[in-house]
Amino acid sequence: MNIAILCFGISSISNVSGTEKVFVEMANQFCQRGASVLAVWNDQPGVVPYYPFLPEVSQINLGLGKIKAPIFYKVLREVSKGLHLNLVNRVDAYKTKKLCQAFKKKINLSEIDVMICYEFNSIMVANQLSNGKIPVIAMCHNSVENQIASLTPLQRKEASKVTAYQVLIPSFVDKAKKFLNTDIYCIPNVVKVIPDNLVADLSHCKKTYKIIMIGRIDSHQKRPLIAIRAFLKNASRFSNWQLHFYGPITDSDYKKEIDEYINVHDLRHQVIYKGITDMPLNVLHDADIFAFPSAYEGFPLALAEANSVGLPAVGFATAPAVNELIKDKVTGFLATDEDDFARKLVLLMDNKALRVQMGKEAREEMKKYSPSVVWGQWDALLQKVVHKKMDE
């Protein structure tokens, strides 16, 4: 099977973020399973992917860099938004045209059996290129509220043209059906099976215990300051505990706010920003609790990896995907607010046996997302949409 995987909504293929990681891993996995794979993105010429593709993957950077639409189109778009007019987004249409032109120059459409799209920019390109002749699968990498409900009526109509739409969590299927008129399938992200030597030993006595956070430093979604405040409410009681947080700084003002709060409230210097880690499993292996204060997620890879290493986690009951990945009182705790988040951290910090028990349950829970299971589901979906198109 010849598969083209399109990802045009990222700022750069050199990013360390989750979308880029899944994009590369998917291309590599399909190659290993016998498919011919085209991984297609748009970036500045010569930019190197952060995550390595297998040599067998055909890597195609359209090389247009940031596409700048005419100012008039941007003004028209903003006026339409302000007046709530259901008009064609000229900026989207302009970028789609440029991407399609570059795509056709580098790729023979007749050699593609199916297209997989990573976000709405890719959907517009794939729909125009396929013209109904090549099956198109769209992916939702975040919550339905964040990525589908936020689309305009015209964008939802465009998204409904795809052959199938994939979401990450079972409850997202019915939510997506409220906005899209196409087939919806649930296929989760892959969670690698962690070897025993990398599983966290939570029963071990330590001089210093660690709570870990891994995620972007931003105030809208990841919200690390909430967990920092929650930890510092009781940090003086737990002098042998530290909170380490990792991730790229995407909101510098928010990072300054975090730094100022730590300077005032972290009297024992127990909260430490560690930058970006290239070895998250090693970081998680040495931890004891995973804090995950996100407002929403699609399928949180950092949380899943922490669970697979055997760490209990604390998240929010109101956070889509987080509230399904964490089994409350089984693999961790779901908090109702910041004060409750602090209480749930204390329950775990105060009880080693509880950490051990929940950590074991968390690791067991992640087995349902093993590579063989998830990639098998993708194989079945690809075969289904390709054969359906051939039979039309």
UniProtKB/TrEMBL annotation:
<dbReference type="Pfam" id="PF00534">
    <property type="entry name" value="Glycos_transf_1"/>
</dbReference>
<dbReference type="InterPro" id="IPR001296">
    <property type="entry name" value="Glyco_trans_1"/>
</dbReference>
<feature type="domain" description="Glycosyl transferase family 1">
    <location>
        <begin position="204"/>
        <end position="364"/>
    </location>
</feature>
<keyword id="KW-0808">Transferase</keyword>
<protein>
    <submittedName>
        <fullName>Putative glycosyltransferase</fullName>
    </submittedName>
</protein>
<dbReference type="GO" id="GO:0016757">
    <property type="term" value="F:glycosyltransferase activity"/>
</dbReference>
